Hints:
2-enoyl-CoA Hydratase, Chain A, domain 1, about 525 residues, 3 domains, about 15% strand, single chain, alpha/beta, 17 strands
Amino acid sequence: MVEIMHSNILELAKMRDHAYQGGGLDRIEAQHQRGKLTARERIDLLLDEGSFEEIDILKAGRGGLGSQGTSYPGDGVITGHGKINGREVFVFSQDFTVMGGSLGEGHSQKICKVMDLASRVGSPVIGLNDSGGARIQEGVDALAAYGEIFHRNVNASGVIPQISCMMGPCAGGAVYSPSITDFIFMVESTSNMFVTGPNVVKTVIHKDISAEELGGASVHSATSGVAHFAYPNDVLCLRGIRQLINYLPSNNKQKAPFLDLNDPPERTDPTLDYLVPPNPNQSYDMNVLIYSILDGAEFLEVHSRFARNIICGFGRLGGQTIGLVANQPAVLAGVLDNNASFKAARFVRFCDAFNIPLVSLVDVPGFMPGPEQEHGGIIRHGAKLLYAFTEATVPRITVIVRKAYGGAYLVMNSKHIHCDINYAWPTAEIAVLGPRGASEIIYRKEIDSAADPEALLNEKMEQYRKYYVNPFLAAKRGYIDDVIFPSQTRHRLIRSLQFLESKIGSRPDRKHGNIPL
């Protein structure tokens, strides 16, 4: 018995050592030469030191067509749980040194197990993706394996945060699991995502294109909007995930962690009184306001390269995590277009799902006009943002900084779609149309018959601006709760969040609504 026990211990040590080696030293070196870390190195950097507990280290696939029953250590993926700043998370890290990290039945079963455990205990799940896609040798079993993961992604959506980190290739059916998750990180130059690769593109439409041009980090973070974050290397990307986790609750039953940065709630910033230029057509950078009001001037922007005319991200006010949505007048005058609308809508829905209060900073002249936007579905995309804000039951606060015109004013978390608190700066302009457009319609006959039409138009514009384009009329109607001094914005927001903390939101008794996807 003692000899058997000793033999088994030696065998276990041998098997574990084999698993730790992955695809072997040569393949590990090849991974490093590509500028990529190994699957285990990534986990070590992502999690708190010494906190990782591996699951299914001895799990192996059963082989398939052409594999002669060969099995591989860990089946190309490392799974388990650990901690990020003391909070439990579950993680899987695909090992490109083992069969190119390809996904087969055993590989999928390992991922599904940690996803099930994460949902059961209410902890985030993080996927470090570096895979050549479905394991062709396993045939339809590999496709079935992907389906099991997709099913769990959907069921966990809105229950636990799901984060995908693309650290290598991701093609075909493999892109759908990351696209269902809440946030996608990509590494520049080494990761890519596409449904059909460059070879298929060349065969079908006879166009030569590189993997980077087709689905690299720069494309998906700036053009398609598929990726929320892009970093120059593995190390910075993993640090970015740790930073994001610090803002999020572990599940939909909890609140985000409170973190006191020793930034006084009553702090004021007199420079904000001069942020908005006297000329309404002159731009300014909304980031000045954002970094001024947030605790410690810390802000994690989401989709920073995509639809830059609207800003979305996480910060803290009085120690509490908030989701911030702000028009950016320095880009396209802050107008809402197709990309900005669905970017903000998805962010709003995430915050609502995970109990994160929403703060809107509004300076929006309207929706982007033109056939390109109309044919691209701006009605539908704008409705997504309207739907997302209206549906949200978390505390919602809006500050109208300058322009708030027409339907865009309503969509940007207005009082009329039941935002909890609406403030305005004295520089706010709230109306159906801007002064010029309104004057041209209201006084058209007078202007057309005037000796100097342009002079009369300017006179009428000033008159309209004086009597209608200001926050005081809306305040008299009760549509604005208070017109505040810009320098006091931070204090007013924190106090509002404090009393809204006990807000109880309700929704109609239904299975779910039908958002205009």
